[in-house]
């Protein structure tokens, strides 16, 4: 998920989680780095804002979570080189206080 | 000498008990369950079914890396926890070396590969000659194609083991004729190999204390460079 501060990445994730049966408890994992939710699937909600090196990323357990559930990644800008090729890219652009432009790529197969 | 060994470095989990060089018992699971939940019941059952008191264990061995971040920490922390109150030594075993020790029957080269993601693998090469595996390279992280270029120098049979074995086999099979994908039952790291490697460490007086036992992580230099390059590019874009 790409989009700057206040773009609505966490709000988007909240909606996504609700669609997968998680009704509450979704909050920004900026501090915790990753939150886990149980819905229709395991959902791992990452925030990469504070990730600045490979070691940082590795020590979040990022690679251990792969292929075990749905990974929702805020601030993907920070780790673009490590994102798997098979992924859905969501870009949220701020238009105005009440408007956003959301681009979803890579979801053709779903 | 009794050695209790565990492996939690990747997807499978295993525990083994070696009694004077012979395998007294080994449990292995590959069910994608959380190691923190499966490991202790496994160890407990192993000790119980082999009628072994934990106080009689002489060496506590663990695959201390390379491997998954969480997995390696679970293994190292568990071994520390069991050995510390008993004041017994630990064996810090390389996961890759443990794999080589699991297949001493063959002759040729063991190429231990673990999938480190981003088209890279954790790897080490070992020469097998009937005796104990002889290390050819240190543990390192490298690109799949870099490893291929290196393997081209060898004429011996190269046995691919580890959770990156299939990945490498698919990449190399067209060009490298001497590369063999080992069958699934001997492909993965097992605590038996860890225990055999620990036995060797004990013979060489290279055991460590529980407090000195540390996870051994390998860096991915290539990945680090790519991330830095992207971040710099990003920073430049933001300036404009």
Key words describing this protein structure:
heterodimer; A: 110 residues; alpha+beta; Rossmann fold; 18% helix; 28% strand; globular; B: 240 residues; Nucleotidyltransferase, domain 5; 2 domains; six-stranded mixed sheet; five-stranded mixed sheet; 8 helices; 11 strands
Describe this structure in words.
The complex is a heterodimer of chains A (110) and B (240). Chain A has helices at residues 9-19, 54-58, 62-65, and strands at residues 34-38, 42-47, 70-74, 89-96, 99-105. With 110 residues, chain A is an alpha+beta fold. In chain A, the strands form two sheets. A three-stranded mixed sheet of chain A has the order 1-2-3, with helices on one face. Chain A has a two-stranded antiparallel ribbon with strand order 4-5. Chain B has two domains: 2-96 and 189-218, ATPase, nucleotide binding domain (Nucleotidyltransferase, domain 5); 103-187, ATPase, nucleotide binding domain (Nucleotidyltransferase, domain 5). Helices cover 37% and strands 26% of the residues of chain B. Chain B has helices at 35-49, 69-83, 95-101, 144-151, 165-172, 184-187, 191-203, 221-239; strands at residues 2-7, 13-19, 22-29, 59-63, 90-93, 107-115, 120-129, 134-135, 140-143, 158-161, 179-181. In chain B, strands 6, 7, 8, 9, 10 and 11 form a six-stranded mixed sheet that branches. A five-stranded mixed sheet of chain B has the order 3-2-1-4-5, with helices on both faces. In chain B, helix 5 (165-172) links the parallel strand 10 (158-161) and strand 11. Classes of the chains: A alpha+beta (110), B alpha/beta (240). Chains A and B meet through helix 2 of A and helix 2 and helix 8 of B.
């Amino acid at each position: 998920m790409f989009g700057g501060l206040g773009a609505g990445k966490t709000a988007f994730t909240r909606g996504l989680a609700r669609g997968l049966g998680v009704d509450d408890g979704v909050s920004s994992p900026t501090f915790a780095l990753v939150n886990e939710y149980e819905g229709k699937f395991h959902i791992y909600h990452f925030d990469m804002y504070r990730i600045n090196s490979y070691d940082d990323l590795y020590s979040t357990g990022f690679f251990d979570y792969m292929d075990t559930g749905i990974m929702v990644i805020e601030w993907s800008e920070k780790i673009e080189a490590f994102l798997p090729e098979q992924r859905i890219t969501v870009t949220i652009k701020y238009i105005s206080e009440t408007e956003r432009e959301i681009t979803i790529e890579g979801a053709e197969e779903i | 000498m009794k050695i209790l060994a565990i492996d939690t470095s990747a997807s499978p989990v295993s525990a083994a008990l070696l009694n004077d060089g012979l395998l007294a018992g080994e449990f292995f699971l590959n069910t994608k369950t959380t190691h923190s939940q499966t490991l202790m019941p496994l160890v407990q059952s192993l000790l119980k079914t082999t009628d072994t008191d934990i106080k009689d264990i002489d060496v506590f061995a663990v695959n201390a890396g390379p491997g998954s971040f969480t997995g390696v920490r679970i293994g190292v922390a568990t071994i520390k926890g069991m050995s510390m109150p008993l004041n017994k030594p630990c064996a810090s075993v390389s996961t890759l070396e443990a794999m080589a020790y699991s297949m001493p029957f063959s002759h040729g080269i063991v190429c231990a590969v673990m999938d480190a993601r981003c088209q890279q693998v954790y790897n080490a090469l070992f020469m097998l000659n009937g005796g104990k595996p002889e290390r050819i390279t240190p543990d390192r992280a490298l690109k799949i194609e870099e490893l291929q270029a290196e393997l081209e120098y060898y004429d011996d049979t190269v046995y691919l083991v580890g959770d990156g074995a299939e990945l490498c086999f698919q990449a190399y099979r067209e060009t490298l004729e001497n590369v063999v994908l080992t069958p699934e039952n001997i492909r993965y790291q097992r605590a038996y190999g860890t225990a055999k490697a620990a036995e060797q460490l004990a013979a060489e007086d290279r055991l460590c204390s529980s407090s000195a036992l540390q996870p051994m992580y390998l860096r991915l230099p290539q990945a680090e460079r790519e991330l830095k390059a992207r971040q710099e590019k990003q920073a430049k874009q933001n300036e404009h």
